[in-house]
């Protein structure tokens, strides 16, 4: 499966939409996009100008400004960066792409030479990405008031990870996030990450046991659930199918208040669920009554009656699942909240209650340095891109389409992400 969180996983072409009534008042970063972008690039160059890659481009500490960066640093594909990345993966700890040590690799979509693409990341990048997560609940609350007073039933899973020859971990970006101390030790005041699922269930490597534990905990706390979701629309449908296939065993365990040892063997999961699961004959009978009917229309709101919305990716390839989700949810709104990837987190949907066909993202200018290559690209040059054609974030035009090019704190410089974006307007000055 492609490991991109949002757009490129799905082949979507996100649209960046104008602020409308009810959109949250922006911070100064959305009003002063160009100055924020200049500061971000100065910070990136200030820490990475002494790397091998940028020195090879002709930069040094005395020429590390925006104009020189644009004049000397070429637009790069993954293949161009692969030799540098491979050296890091093999154990070279010199400052090749970043002066900060590479903490791990995030596996990205696509392959190079038949192997998953490896995106280097550094320790403080996780904290930067957490800032974007911290904006999600305030935005959601504007459209779904009171959402922070309950819990979310999210079906979240970790994926397998590997080690590079040099000993660095390589894993999907969400697996990295779920296994981080930042996630595992998140404060109780973090209302967006207030889940019905115990962390041990999310971190369980066995997908069946993880799903079973998350489902039983969600059933036990059904009146607390105000939002229900998964990363993808298809993942939420898998959870509903899981309930269809396993409701009898789930009801039996709820009735006894103990997980069947034939179903869940992971000791950490059993211990975590034991803090939530109690004998409840009434709830067990309710589950049986609702699931034995054969009619699954509106099952989400029948079992979790206080649910205000679904929180899933429904753009691109996931759009095909929208009718099924509407059927099972009784027509609940579907919030598609964030545009992000293993290379960088980009922006938020500031209108999460919009129709799935109208999902749009506002780029946050403090997450990285963003440039845009007008589409179509002149293929007569054999794919060689003239860096002089790139447009700054503050200078994109409504109605135009651009390929996204990013420079990150982790050491990607003028990297072609591959996503094509259509600009439809601005939130203040942020497209």
Automatic annotation (TrEMBL):
Name of this protein: Uncharacterized protein
Organism per entry: Avena sativa (Oat)
